Amino acid sequence: MAYPPPRVACPEEPVALLSVSSREEDHASLRRILCDTNWEVVEVSVGRDAKPKLLAHKTPVVIFAANVFDGEWNLLLAAARQLPDPPKLIVSLRAVNDRFWAEIPNLGCYDVLARPYMAEEVRRVVGLAWNRWNRECENRFAHPKPPASAPRVADTPYRTRTGKAG
């Protein structure tokens, strides 16, 4: 039995998508593919310029060209993880091989896009990343973590039915 493809959402209001690539044609391609959506493509050409943009915009999705690994990749990953709502990181490659694709989750990334970009695939991957980011934000809002100084349930005395501490 074939299942329908997952519903891929698109933001209802303008939302930043950070594109990190040294190639202008990558940025132009993303702008063209996403022009009729509410994704606003924010462009940088080197990884070290991505961190300030990431911190300046609430950015749910980052597309990072694999050829921009200029020593700032780990810093960008660390900066993304420190945000209250960390973005979904998507790596773009000229040729996607199975070994690298399998390694992507271990690097802390969400998915891989092959270049040249195909419109349907970009919209699908970006939309699924957006869906996941939204669900994670909703879960964090619905189930906030207690402050580090809050006592854990196991550290507090329990009460019996009579209200006396046990």
Helix and strand arrangement:
Blueprint: E1 15-20, H1 24-33, E2 39-44, H2 50-56, E3 61-65, H3 73-82, E4 88-93, H4 98-107, E5 111-114, H5 119-142
Parallel strand pairs: 1-2, 1-3, 3-4, 4-5
Helix pairs in contact: 2-3
Structure write-up:
The protein is an alpha/beta fold. It has one domain (15-155): Rossmann fold (3-Layer(aba) Sandwich). The chain is 37% helix and 16% strand. The protein is built from 5 helices and 5 strands. It has a 5-stranded parallel beta sheet with strand order 2-1-3-4-5, sandwiched between helices. β4 (88-93), α4 and β5 form a beta-alpha-beta unit. α2 (50-56) runs parallel beside α3. The termini are far apart.
Jot down its keywords.
single chain; 166 residues; alpha/beta; Rossmann fold; five-stranded parallel sheet; 5 helices; 5 strands; globular
CATH superfamily: Response regulator
- Number of structural domains: 1
- The Cα radius of gyration reads 20 Å
The proportion of residues forming helix, as a percent range, comes to 25-40%
Head-to-tail CA distance between termini: 55 Å
Mean pLDDT: 79
**H/E series:** EHEHEHEHEH
What is the level 1 CATH name?
Answer: Alpha Beta
Number of helices: 5
Biggest sheet character = 5 strands, parallel
Going across the biggest sheet, name each strand in turn: 2-1-3-4-5
- CATH topology tier name: Rossmann fold
Query: Structural class of the secondary elements?
Result: alpha/beta
Based on the structure given, which CATH architecture is correct? 3-Layer(aba) Sandwich
